[in-house]
């Protein structure tokens, strides 16, 4: 018969092994429930390598969710935005975008409209300097509180000209096989169109929308526009919460993290509201606030 000390040691060893197995099971369950999504930070010193990965990603993941961060707005409307026409809204967007600098671009890739995000890239640009350039102070304070390091952007960021050249050669733009998903994206596309053009935005809204279609193709889905058909209201966080979608990676008010949340919100909306074949395509090509015709995104 073993001694009490040996029996106690054996019991403690069994308990230790039991706890280890429980921890391993919990870790495995956590990994199954919340698979890790990698956000790849893109700076000047690794931009060529990361864009090689982007070119490769497009071959397998042709659905791209996009978000940007910029220095807020410095020109404000003379009347309530709801009372403005699409032409007036575009004039306001153009005034702001032509005067300001883009800070960050987030790109999230997925295989299909129903697939989870596969990988996300966060491109950090260098042009904006809050000490020199115009901006909305509250917007810059919010971005800084969300983790954006403006000194790092100035020191290590990708130049807008280099980003535009890489974007043009990446297969992301001017490619009808790529579908784009965004949220309230008029400003996002305006900044990208301006960078790709290398000059100020077109004067008229129809001309701007023509450039959006040339660069980004016919399959552009603005989740904010789609929400009108789903009885959903508010910003991205509110829509995601209503759909029980959680942020899968990163922090809010960072472009890549918001692009991931936009994608997950989109695919949940598709599952719940756009399951009927062809219903999703009715929403394509319309940017919220810049609709030139009556909303065609109708499920009934």
UniProtKB/TrEMBL annotation:
Q: Assembly and partners?
A: Component of the CCR4-NOT complex, at least composed of CRR4 and CAF1 proteins.
Supply one GO CC term from the record: cytoplasm
Explain the purpose of this protein: Ubiquitous transcription factor required for a diverse set of processes. It is a component of the CCR4 complex involved in the control of gene expression.
Offer one Pfam family short name for this entry: CAF1
**Compositionally skewed regions (Basic residues) per UniProt:** 13-22
Listed GO MF terms: metal ion binding; poly(A)-specific ribonuclease activity; RNA binding
Where it sits in the cell: the answer is:
Cytoplasm; Nucleus
Q: What sections of the sequence does the record tag as coiled-coil?
A: none
Q: Where is this region: Disordered?
A: 1-37
Which family does the UniProt entry place this protein in? Belongs to the CAF1 family.
List its EC numbers. Answer: 3.1.13.4
Q: Which cofactor does it need?
A: a divalent metal cation
Identify the domain of life: Eukaryota
Q: Low complexity bias: where?
A: 23-34
- Protein name per its UniProtKB record: poly(A)-specific ribonuclease
Q: Which UniProt keywords apply?
A: Cytoplasm, Exonuclease, Hydrolase, Metal-binding, Nuclease, Nucleus, RNA-binding, Transcription, Transcription regulation
Q: Which PANTHER family match?
A: CCR4-NOT TRANSCRIPTION COMPLEX SUBUNIT
Catalytic activity of the protein: Exonucleolytic cleavage of poly(A) to 5'-AMP
Which enzyme class? hydrolase
